[in-house]
Write a structure and sequence with these properties.
By secondary structure, this protein is an alpha/beta fold. 32% of the residues lie in helices and 12% in strands.
Length: 130
């Protein structure tokens, strides 16, 4: 299943994932999440779970790798923006309301995989279920 996640990230690319920006008025380095309107709730939850795994792994190791995880705001403080959607994702990666707003040509151009993606991190050793 981890190989399938690799395929997803190759199709997503960094520019297609949520970003963040410093929260207005923050002096402690809190970041407000900027999410793409095209992203489904399932995809966003999966990406947040990966953030949590990274944050836990970063905290629990003596040897630090990568950037320090950012302190991101809760979901209510997210900002949603229109941004180009990546081509070739599974249908449940895209927000259904957003997909419904597209013309037939725009939807066809996305080359959507007409099956659902299985969002699963249970194979990851750092995954902890609440």
């Amino acid at each position: 299943d981890l190989q399938r996640n690799h395929i997803l990230f190759n199709r997503l690319t960094a520019s297609a994932m949520s970003g963040d920006e410093t929260e207005p008025g923050s002096t402690v380095g809190r970041y407000r999440i900027i999410r793409a309107r095209w992203q489904s709730a399932e995809l966003r939850a999966f990406l947040r779970a990966l953030d949590d795994i990274y944050r836990e792994a970063w905290r629990s190791t003596v040897v630090r790798w990568g950037s320090r995880p950012r302190n991101r705001c809760s979901e209510g403080d997210w900002v949603t923006v229109d941004s180009p959607a990546p081509v070739g994702l599974w249908r449940n990666c895209y927000d259904s309301v957003w997909l419904g707003s597209l013309t037939l040509d725009e939807r066809d151009a996305l080359e959507i995989e007409e099956e659902d993606y299985h969002f699963d991190l249970t194979a990851h050793p750092s995954y902890v279920q609440a």
